[in-house]
Amino acid sequence: MNQNYNFKSLQYSEDNKEQETNPDDIKVFETGQTKTIDFVQKDGTRQSFSYGHFMTAWMGIKDDERFIKIFFATHLITIKGYCLDPIYDHFINQYLKILRVSDERYLDQVKEHEPFIVEINIVWKKEDK
Q: For the whole model, what pTM was predicted?
């Protein structure tokens, strides 16, 4: 007596073997009318800041790596990546809603001159006593 079992987990794994990431799916930022900006880490951790607490920002290059430093009233945020000019422009116009870190292994799938974020570092500026 033979009986075949059709488990959904087996079917799911068969259907989703080696799916390739579509370069159009790699979206490191979203824009739109907003009062806050949301930073999303690679592990899904999110932290949001109000543009009302924004103080200053600058963009530069150190050791051939592009970065943006953003000072809020209580935090310093450092963004590292490639082709960050559009992100900086949207940010200073307070039109940037979401910034997302992407895995560097997908960098070769990004279109040339498209922004790509490899790291967002958020540090609380605690008061010294």
A: 0.76
